[in-house]
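task queued by scheduler; priority normal; single chain, no ligands, no partner chains; default sampling; output format set to structure tokens
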Amino acid sequence: MIAAVNQDLWQGGASCGKKFQVTCTGATNQGVPHPCTDSPTVNVMITDFCLPPGCKGDLDLSNEAFSIVADPRAGGIKISYQEYVIKYLFIDSFFF
């Protein structure tokens, strides 16, 4: 699951590879008044910069990611998002 970000979030490429949890919170138009799915949250990795004027918000979700959180016919949705960090724990094991 991938997404592109606007210039503010792109930070000269520093956000590339970062992970965000994105949740659909509502409609932006009357065409699909209730676009959010029953499982309206998806985790995405930032892979690209969304050039204006094509980027109408903070994040531009891939079609696959968008269809998990909302009805694709909606086109645009209101979202909340937060960055998250995956922490790895490595344990050295010795077998006797």
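post-processing summary
- The radius of gyration is 16 Å.
- The chain has a mean pLDDT of 91.
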